[in-house]
């Protein structure tokens, strides 16, 4: 397996080259070299993480995971002030996930926080933008996190505020202060949580940027880096059809994995604090909400014009075509293996995926992630 993967990675770094899309139906992914039935030995310090959602129905098999990030918990406000946080959805789901630690003693469970509201007993409010403006509210939130970690016997806190200084939806934000206040939040969390409690965040595929109308947006990765154990970079949804959402390098597209990692590294974040995101779904079109889980990609019917595992040799990623046209970009064991060679060559910490339910019943992608990280 390694010999073939080394050959693949040698091909990979003609990355500065840019040519027309290789959307040729039938250009296949390179073989089935990644024999995922063999489990690589765990390497201390490397991570293979999966987000597991409150609305999922599957109880994860953590054999090929070092961490589960439980998604999500949400903030509650009363009269404009932070009151508490609570798990989204049914508490029993969290208890089932937490119980996995009894059988899998290597497994770490982290609670992930969203900036959205979904619980029926909660209402839309100022969210993290409002919380972070107040030192008192930041401190109360940090103390609540510390208490929850201790009471529940979990291992970490993950902040998934998407994103300081902007929003993709209707969440409150303040481009003038959010970026700096996010840094203060992470500082307060680090100073409050026990040293053994991991602290992470879900990072945008870019470092901090100037806002279109003033202020700043995203996260100042260099400022936050001293306070966190690592950063889960969301290197997916970086383009929609007919572009690849998670190509290693496609300079002709809006963004790609190489530019993401370079952006963080140029900011001064150590490679060993960077975790590459892997989508367990295919991305079609943003406007239509077009996403399809990997498990469902495998079921697409060729009689309806679908061909899976077409290969883009520039981006080193597969794609689905329909009637000869690009349908969606995704990741498979071959692209994950190549990404593994790449990130380990840089000295990165590992990979995370969104999300567990997207994998097939055989665990094809999570095994591929494990073996790519632990090789």
TrEMBL record:
Gene3D superfamilies: Glycosidases. Its EC number is 3.2.1.14. Residues 1-19 form the signal peptide. It is an enzyme of class 3 (hydrolase). The keyword Hydrolase applies. Coiled coil: none annotated. InterPro entries: Chitinase_II/V-like_cat, GH, Glyco_hydro18_cat, Glyco_hydro_18_chit_AS, Glycosyl_Hydrlase_18. Residues 37-375 form the GH18 domain. The keyword Signal applies. It holds the Pfam family Glyco_hydro_18. Keywords: Glycosidase, Hydrolase, Signal. It catalyses: Random endo-hydrolysis of N-acetyl-beta-D-glucosaminide (1->4)-beta-linkages in chitin and chitodextrins. It comes from the Bacteria. GO terms for biological process: carbohydrate metabolic process. SUPFAM superfamilies: (Trans)glycosidases. One of its GO terms (molecular function) is chitin binding. Belongs to the glycosyl hydrolase 18 family. PANTHER family: CHITINASE, CHITINASE 12-RELATED. This is chitinase. It comes from Bacteroides stercorirosoris. The lineage of its organism: Bacteria, Pseudomonadati, Bacteroidota, Bacteroidia, Bacteroidales.
